[in-house]
Structure prediction request, 133 residues.
Amino acid sequence: MRHSLPLFNTGLAAQYNIGVMYENGLGVKKDPAEAIKWFELAAQKGHGQAQYALGQRYALGHQYAKNDVKAMEWFDKAANNDVGEAQYEMGLIYEAGTLVKQDLAKAKEWFDYACDNDIEPACKKLEAMKATK
Prediction:
């Protein structure tokens, strides 16, 4: 049982990577629908980058109807899996206050996490927020 967790994680990464291959036509014919299938498999099992990928597709309306609420749900899951880009998206969501009640303290918290993950725009947002105080 001790060895099953690394194998499980490897399987999730493989599912995500297969999605990337189909999305970009790397060694396979480019197939966005097939890419989404693989992203969904990995995301539903907790793979952060796959969750972020689904959030992006809902936010932009790629392969799905544009749905900001679903995008936020996937960004939130990815952000809680320490995906810096998703943490930045959550900061933007709380800063804007369009999908949730505006909460600049939560926005700052998410930007701080994202900055810790080397997301430069998040670091700039933090600097700007500190300058306005």
Notes: The two ends are 52 Å apart (CA to CA). Residues 1-65 form one domain. The chain has seven helices and no strands. Residues 1-9 have pLDDT under 50 and may be disordered.
